[in-house]
Design brief:
about 200 residues, alpha/beta, Metallo-beta-lactamase, Chain A
């Protein structure tokens, strides 16, 4: 699912949908167009270059996923991309990108400090998967193959999330995935995940 984050300094297209037809272009232009594109991980790359060309918008991707850009879109022109390094990248309008890793080496989320009526919003795709019911989350290397992350990787994600500014609402990868009171629920879910990773006895209930 793609989201258009409308800030006072322009719109960010978060993640990307494959369909880009004339009707979609007209709708997005009527909403103010796209100033920049940021994509959580390679599963959303598809038509990112077409979106970028249509709206003359750079694409922000963490440097650790650059190899996937070259594999998925070998026709990519470097000028379309802004590969960034480190843990955090400021954009505009109170939006910043945060590198978490886990699902992919360069997996990133976005934070908008003015979102949720000024309480802060987090855009997580399925880097942090909001579960049905929106009370808990999960994190995995592969969802189709059910490959979990290790305790060490989850702890690293926790440490990075602790540095993210306040947020009240998190938006996930699916239409239902809007989590209120998100920070506490995400922290609880990751603690629970680690607890079960560290239990050796399969009979423990």
């Amino acid at each position: 699912m793609a989201l258009l984050v409308s800030t006072e300094e322009g719109n960010l297209l978060w993640d990307c949908i494959a369909l880009l037809d004339a009707a979609t272009v007209d709708i997005v232009k009527a909403l103010g167009g796209v100033k920049a594109i940021a994509i959580s991980h390679p599963h959303y790359y598809s038509t990112m270059i077409e979106w970028s060309r249509t709206f003359d918008a750079p694409i922000y991707i963490h440097i650790k996923d650059r190899e996937w850009v070259e594999q998925v879109r070998p026709d990519a022109v470097a000028a379309h991309f802004r590969f960034w390094e480190g843990d955090q990248q400021a954009l505009f309008g109170g939006v910043s990108l945060w590198h978490l890793g886990g699902h992919f080496a360069g997996a990133q989320i976005a934070h908008w400090k003015h979102g949720a009526n000024g309480k802060g919003a987090l855009f997580v795709g399925d880097i942090i998967q909001i579960n049905p019911g929106c009370q808990t989350v999960g994190v995995m290397r592969s969802y189709p193959c059910l490959i979990p992350l290790s305790a060490g990787v989850v702890q690293r994600i926790q440490a990075k999330l602790a540095c993210v500014p306040p947020y009240e609402t998190a938006y996930g990868a699916w239409w239902y995935a809007v989590m209120k009171g998100a920070r506490g629920k995400i922290e609880y879910s990751l603690d629970r995940y680690l607890k079960w990773l560290n239990i050796d006895d399969p009979e423990v209930a």
